[in-house]
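Table S2 (text version). Query chain:
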Amino acid sequence: MYDAIILGGGAAGLMCAATAGQRGRRVLLLDHAEQVGKKILISGGGRCNFTNIGTAPDRYLSNNPHFAKSALSRYTARDFLDLVERHGIAWHEKTLGQLFCDGSAKQIVEMLLGECAIGKVEIVTGRATPEIAHDGAHFRVGTATAPALVIATGGPSIPKMGATGFAYDLARRFGLKVVEPRPALVPLTLSGEEALFRDLSGVATDVIASAGKAKFREAALFTHRGLSGPAILQVSSYWKHGDPIAIDFLPDAAANWLTEAKRTRPRTTLRKLLSEALPDRLAETLAEKLALTGELVGMTDKKLAEAERALAAWRFLPNGTEGFAKAEVTIGGIDTAGLSSQTMEARKVPGLYAIGEAVDVTGWLGGYNFQWAWASGVAAGQAL
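Corresponding structure-token output:
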């Protein structure tokens, strides 16, 4: 007999287990992988981008944009950073509020395991999830029983790490709805006439990428399949199949910069100007696509203005994404309409909880999804 059984030893599951265990609850945590925290270990290039100091509810996508507010306000990035510092883990801030370990992501996993040990959490790994039953008062998982069961098994992103849609199947079994999951923070693929840009594979540059009303200024990277890099991963969460994305290749360019260059540097070429701000291969390709060759003095102001507009909002029409295999997270998941935003408990199934990536709450790139894992894990752990 336990007070709670937690399925999934990722960021959310470990945080929930530690929180509940330290409140005196007898907790069993189960994970089918040989070790817990596998996704933590590969995150941030092995240094774990464990939170973002800019965390705010408007940096999360969900069918209910208000759902994450309660948990995020009660367990903040500063709260997690305090925990990191208590464990003596050195950290640094990179761009845009992203916090990383100076050393290894292993330190975060060891910290969470240490917190679980304080709470006397029992952890079992490397076994297939046994049959789950519910008699109305208790959940039975194999030979273990508890009045509370926490779904913390994540979404199907990065299946090579063992990720599956198990959380959704289990939630549906208990009558919870699931918002259609799709890959998020994922590279986009190009085809047809845009295949020319595949020749730029490996070229990266600072851009503003936009999809709908969402805009992000970071690096974009051309790949042999299409587009990637932080700016593209960010807009991929907002992109809908069949819609274009737009890229501003010269986000710092002044208005009318080309026509002004015609006045001050009439003998220069568009390709020369572009190569001063962009990688040479990209400058050559863009100039070729715009079909503006020769000196600026020989071009009309109208043509130059059209080129300015094209470079400020270059339209790509992706034909898809690289799928869950390359997606960092999943958009969609267990519908928040069926959960309490205070406790993460299912409204119609007392004792059943869902946290972390399994839930329809998806953050931006840069530590936001970890902060949701910590915050939702704490919210459930405090309620168990």
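Notes on Table S2: The longest strand covers residues 214-222. The radius of gyration is 24 Å.
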